[in-house]
């Protein structure tokens, strides 16, 4: 069994366990709405939407990523778990390169020459690093404000397409095999009716 098939099988077995955990008294009242909106559905379309939403919301600053993912998943019927996990692509190791890329996109789209201020990692603990990152982000200005939504939309569209391809690849292969089997059977080989 291939890794992709194992992953899809694991997702199919995960959905009933997640839905069963919603039977407690606090979430039980929301269960009909949650079921109707596919926010815990592990089928192809809600998963693709969830990953795309997570990629889109991953570039939102700080703790608003998960709240944004939850709200948009409820609105667009995407898988909440996939969205929350997908937001993890932005972390202290990836945020500077992502913001650099967003700045470059914004500088390309905006008129005039845009100069990127250098990022200097401050000495000290995590709090000093967060303050330094915030100051650098505010110094990036309009190119960052223009580039972030464009980058987020590009990442979301690519993620949506990749999840669709991941789930549809076995279907396409099966259809091709069936098509080649049909072509091999010629009319003179078939028995008369």
Beta-strand residue percentage: under 5%
- According to DSSP, the number of beta strands is 0
Q: Into which percent range does the helicity of residues fall?
A: 55-70%
Q: How many structurally independent domains?
A: 1
Describe this structure in words.
The protein is mainly α and 193 residues long. The chain has one domain (3-169). Helices cover 68% and strands 0% of the residues. It is built from seven helices and no strands. Helix 3 (44-57) runs antiparallel to helix 4 and helix 6 crosses helix 7. 24% of the residues are buried.
What's a quick, concise take on this entry?
The chain has seven helices and no strands.
Provide keyphrases for this structure:
globular, 0% strand, 193 residues, mainly alpha
List the helices and strands and how they pair.
Blueprint: H1 3-20, H2 31-36, H3 44-57, H4 64-76, H5 80-86, H6 95-109, H7 126-184
């Amino acid at each position: 069994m291939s890794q992709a098939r194992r992953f899809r099988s694991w997702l199919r077995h995960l959905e009933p366990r997640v839905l069963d955990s919603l039977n407690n008294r606090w979430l039980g009242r929301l269960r009909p709405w949650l079921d109707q909106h596919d926010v815990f559905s592990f089928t192809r379309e809600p998963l693709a939407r969830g990953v795309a939403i997570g990629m889109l919301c991953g570039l939102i600053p700080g703790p608003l990523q998960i709240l944004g993912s939850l709200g948009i998943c409820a609105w667009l019927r995407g898988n909440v778990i996939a969205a929350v996990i997908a937001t993890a692509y932005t972390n202290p190791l990836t945020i500077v390169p992502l913001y650099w890329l967003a700045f470059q996109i914004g500088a390309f789209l905006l008129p005039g020459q845009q100069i990127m201020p250098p990022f200097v990692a401050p000495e000290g603990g995590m709090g000093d690093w967060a303050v330094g990152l915030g100051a650098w982000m505010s110094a990036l200005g309009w190119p960052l404000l223009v580039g972030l939504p464009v980058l987020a939309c590009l990442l979301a569209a690519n993620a949506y397409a990749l999840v669709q391809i991941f789930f549809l690849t076995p279907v396409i292969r099966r259809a091709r095999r069936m098509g080649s089997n049909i072509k091999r059977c010629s009319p003179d080989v078939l028995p008369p009716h």
